[in-house]
Amino acid sequence: MTEETVPDLSPVIILVDPQLGENIGMCARAMLNCGLTKMRIVRPRDGWPNQKARDASSGALDVIDGATLHETVEDAVADLTRVYATTGRKREMVETVMTPRAAASDIRKVSAVGGERCGVLFGGERSGLNNDDVAKADVILRVPLNPDFKSLNLAQAVLLVGYEWFIAADETPDFDLDIGGSRPATRQEIDIYIDRLGRGLDEGGFFRAPEMRPTVMRNIRLLFQRANLTDQDIRTLHGIVESLRRAGPERG
């Protein structure tokens, strides 16, 4: 029994009138970082294939070698069912406008539910997409940036859109503690250390007012519990206490 092949419904990245091969290569690099592999190129100024694009891709050759060349935008989007056009300029058109984050969620939804094939249009470095190109899209994709300075290069724009698409389905936690080969300390290990520390503080006369000991020790315990200690941390703390014990009274 053969395993059913899951169709690749990731969006197609379409570069319209790109100028420099290096910029195409950097777009490929940005795409592959975000798990995107389908690139289409419309009228590249410096021709295709392009060695400079390969050199600038930093090894994203699957994207470069799989890119298809097109004479027109119509040809590049002919088999797609939903197209998004990136632009930073206001257009005299009545169009749905989305942020990259909203568009990423929309692409994920229409691809998963309806099996639609989506593509994102990016204009050339000099002037972006023209109005006719934008009119071929279902949605305008506009990035909310500093209103007094909106200047992204081609690869930055591709990375921004690709990243939003990638994290829309990514489950990486917002916060994590990398403890390497260690493990989190158990409550028993922390209790043993706190008890030892308390005895040492008693011997050293730390508690000038004995009635304050329970409160101070409780605060010390909470301090160490907030620290997310590992078993290695506990061993280190025991070593510190032992070294201080061997050092004896402080010498002037």
User: Which overall shape is indicated by the principal axes computed on the Cα atoms?
Assistant: elongated
Beta fraction of the residues?
5-15%
SS class: alpha/beta
The overall pLDDT, averaged over residues, is 91
Q: What strand line-up does the widest sheet have?
A: 3-2-1-6-4-7-5
Radius of gyration: 29 Å
Helix content: 40-55%
* Tally of alpha and pi helices: 10
Number of strands: 7
Distance between the termini: 81 Å
Q: Major sheet, described briefly?
A: 7 strands, parallel
**Poorly predicted tracts of residues:** none
Q: What order do the SSEs take from the amino end to the carboxyl end, as H and E?
A: EHEHHEHEEHEHEHHHH
Describe the 3D structure:
The structure is a single chain. This protein has 252 residues and is an alpha/beta fold. Helices cover 44% and strands 11% of the residues. It contains ten helices and seven strands. The chain has helices at residues 21-33, 51-56, 61-66, 73-77, 100-114, 131-135, 154-167, 187-203, 213-226, 231-247, and strands spanning 12-16, 39-42, 68-70, 82-86, 96-98, 118-122, 139-141. It has a seven-stranded parallel beta sheet with strand order 3-2-1-6-4-7-5. Strand 1 (12-16), helix 1 (21-33) and strand 2 (39-42) form a beta-alpha-beta unit. It is elongated, with a radius of gyration of 29 Å. The termini are far apart. The model has no long low-confidence stretch (mean pLDDT 91).
